[in-house]
Amino acid sequence: MAQIKFGTDGWRALMDTDFTFENVERVAQAFSDHLYSRKPTKAPRIVIGYDWRKNSENFAKTFSEVLLGNGIEVLLSSAACPTPAVSYAIVSEHLDAGIAVTASHNPPGYNGIKIKTDFGGSADKDITDAVETFIGKNPIKKKTFESASGAVTRNLNEKYLRFLQSYLKVDEIKKAPYRVLVDSMHGVGDTHIQNILSGGAIKVTTIRGHRDITFGGSAPEPIPHNLGVTIERMKKKEFDLAVVTDGDADRIGAVRPGGEFISPGIILTLIMLHMVQDLKKTGSVVTTISNTALIYKAARKLGLKVHETPVGFKYVCEIMRKENVLIGGEESGGIGFQGYLYERDGLLSALLLMEMMAMRKKSFEEILADVEKEFGKLYYVRNDINYPNELKPRLFDHLKRQPPKEFDGHRVKEIKSQDGVKFVLTDDSWLLFRLSGTEPILRIYSEATSQSLAEMLVGRGKDLAFNLPS
């Protein structure tokens, strides 16, 4: 039997090898056992949603039937939905937890299970560890969905999309005469943004907005490598902005006119400026260790406190639940907002960029130019590499025991090790090594004041990773 391990945000595995109907049943039974281990006073109530991956709707139904077999009430989405729709159903219906069947941004061969807690956020390690301990402990109980009491289906998108729009100045966005390209990457972002903004002066064009279980042959992750079609469209300068959402629509990327990719950290910074300067909100900021230094620069100007966490939105969410956080996010594009859900939302992030344009009566290019003039332009590079398992402990042991003191004449002034190993240079450029929590790869990140320096740092990082001393 496959070993089932939860990573940074859920359990993800290759379909037809580890992510099978049998293993989904095992996880569902373990999840049921975990719920009952907390000694509830009445039958738990759970919502289940799913994305557009191969068999996601069938995996979701299988999961629900095991819950029903254990006497748990289930609200099963009747249509594929963004992951934040599951979170909204939990909090709006006062449910005990939720399940999203999705592998998020992973390649097409993967599927996964995300566990959402009673406040709508991702389950922390204590919960996923507890679920793991129950796997295989008890026989699987199952009832067919059609015959079980406590089984309800409903389209989760309808109430979620109304809630989403209530957070925004939709009428103001619709009046803005901009041209926006939306790339849904064949994910469940679908044509939702285009539908919300239809009938106004703003013109929205959606590409890759239909289901394709191969995702066009690439991973539905909004990074430059996967955005060739969008970047080519933006090079023609027919649009003022391109926004991109991932497979389950909880992450965002963007492309500016001319085809340059805008990293999620810059997007977070722009929305932070919008929330403070245009919407007159305040609070602290949360960012993961792999995010851009631009966030710190802008936060200092705005007088906002910044918290730094390991990679994973659950760490961001933990701080959001404890204090008044204005905005929090991670470099992979997951951003959460004050007064919304304790969950990231790619659709809302995209619409807030458009709201900023509408309220400032400036194009995205003009807004970026203003920010770059004030704070300087930073260049961000990330390289994901397949890396032998036997080298991983050696690499991180070497980085901690014999850390480089400089990179091509750029002296290291600080080393951070809360998640991987990060080298901060004297000019505030940086290089980070960390292992992915959802895929068997090594990620090497850098940020610098020039593209060439950022690429050099990643190149040096790769050289170091593959040329360890014996």
Describe this structure in words.
The protein is an alpha/beta fold and 470 residues long. It folds into 4 domains: 11-160, Alpha-D-Glucose-1,6-Bisphosphate, subunit A, domain 3 (Alpha-D-Glucose-1,6-Bisphosphate, Chain A, domain 3, 3-Layer(aba) Sandwich); 174-261, Alpha-D-Glucose-1,6-Bisphosphate, Chain A, domain 3; 263-344, Alpha-D-Glucose-1,6-Bisphosphate, Chain A, domain 3 (3-Layer(aba) Sandwich); 379-466, TATA-Binding Protein (2-Layer Sandwich), CATH 3.30.310. Helices cover 36% and strands 22% of the residues. It has helices spanning 21-37, 56-69, 83-93, 125-134, 156-166, 170-175, 192-196, 228-235, 264-278, 294-302, 313-320, 346-360, 364-375, 392-401, 451-466, and strands at residues 11-14, 45-50, 73-77, 97-101, 110-116, 151-154, 179-183, 203-207, 241-245, 252-255, 261-262, 284-288, 306-309, 325-329, 335-337, 379-386, 406-407, 410-416, 421-425, 430-435, 441-448. The strands form 4 sheets. Strands 1-5-4-2-3-6 form a 6-stranded mixed beta sheet, with helices on both faces. A hairpin with a 2-residue loop joins strand 17 and strand 18 (410-416). Helix 9 runs parallel beside helix 10 (294-302). The mean pLDDT is 95.
